[in-house]
Amino acid sequence: MNDTDDAVPRSRDAAEDWWIYLGDGGPHEGIEELPPPPPWRSFSGGPLIEPRFAPDDMVARRLGAEERARAYRASDPAINMVNTALYLRRPLLVTGKAGIGKSTLAFSIAYELGLGPVLNWPVTSRSVLRDGLYGYDAIGRLQEANMNQLAGQPAAAPDIGQFIRLGPLGTALLPQARPRVLLIDELDKSDIDLPNDLLNVFEEGSFEIPELTRLPDTEDMTTVMTHDTLGRVPVRRGKVTCNAFPIVVITSNGERTFPAPFLRRCVRLEIQHPGQKALADIVAAHLGPQAVQRSLPIIERFLERRADGDIATDQLLNAVYFTTSGTHAPGSARELVEAELLRPLDSPLAT
């Protein structure tokens, strides 16, 4: 799809009947209408863990995630592919230029469907699969055992569960009745092996914690820490298996290609640049409808600059807010600042 106004989302009244996610920033209970998964994507982990957060969890609000999600407006192609991933219980691989809204899509899904705070795994070149699954503080456990011994307490090893914390991927795979949203951000920055290492976890919907599988049969159940607000949760025989496969949003700036076995297990979406009407809708969502008319000349200049190089939508929002807020000096200084705010990311700074 080219840079056209086809990216403008439909109104809720015109939404397709099969859509669970509507992409309009309005929370609803559409997730309850999601039909059963395909037989090959059905999981039965347990016992079920009850969520300990409200749909408008304060953690998400403090991080500004709710505002990002409420103002996000998804295009029809994005809405179609999000819903496809929901129906098929497959990860959604989202590609596109930096600053185009790839990661915000995950927050929009979680907010609209009332699925709690997004579990965020920002990937780096040093990230490995275990970082996303869990961490084990073996040194901390040894130190506590030594402290107990010095204090004259029984020689039994400290509770191992308090030294194991599930990562964002591990927490997303806990057996919950409603899926969590997991953002695996910028996977293209990862080591070359990570995409392939994710395959088995995505296919099985489960993983093992070897430190727990080696425990004696008398320690059948262990409670471990989680990545977010769930507190400690039970894990039986060291294996975590999901009940509802998480809504996995994987972002990539397109800086590398992924192996075919990984790609065929994902639903793919390429987010395109929004056109003029879509940009006006984004401005209205963030700054109110009263800002749209005053922002139209800035949107036109933004589109002109975008033709010359990469430029992110948040640069437009910064320029519109700065220019229309009335909290700055008027005249040529304002024009110079606006020009810098709308400078393409690949353009050198003026000297």
Radius of gyration: 23 Å
Question: What multimeric state do the chains show?
Answer: single chain
Question: Which strands sit side by side, in order, in the main sheet?
Answer: 2-5-10-1-11
Q: Which ranges are low-confidence, i.e. pLDDT below 50, for 5 or more consecutive residues?
A: 1-9, 55-62
- DSSP strand tally: 11
Mean pLDDT across all amino acids: 86
Q: How much strand content do the residues show? A: 5-15%
Q: What's the story with the biggest beta sheet?
A: 5 strands, parallel
Helical fraction:
25-40%
Number of helices: 14
The helix/strand series, from N terminus to C terminus, equals HHHEHEHEHEHEHEHEEEEHEHHHH
Shape: globular
The SS-based structural class is: alpha/beta
End-to-end CA span: 37 Å
Helices and strands in order:
Blueprint: H1 58-62, H2 65-71, H3 76-88, E1 92-95, H4 102-112, E2 119-122, H5 129-133, E3 134-136, H6 138-150, E4 164-166, H7 168-172, E5 181-185, H8 194-204, E6 206-208, H9 210-213, E7 221-225, E8 232-236, E9 239-241, E10 247-252, H10 260-263, E11 267-270, H11 276-287, H12 290-306, H13 313-324, H14 332-341
Parallel strand pairs: 1-10, 1-11, 2-5, 5-10
Antiparallel strand pairs: 3-4, 6-9, 7-8
Supply database-style keywords:
two-stranded antiparallel sheet, alpha/beta, five-stranded parallel sheet, 14 helices, globular
Question: What does this entry show, briefly?
Answer:
The protein is 37% helix and 13% strand. The protein has 351 residues and is an alpha/beta fold.
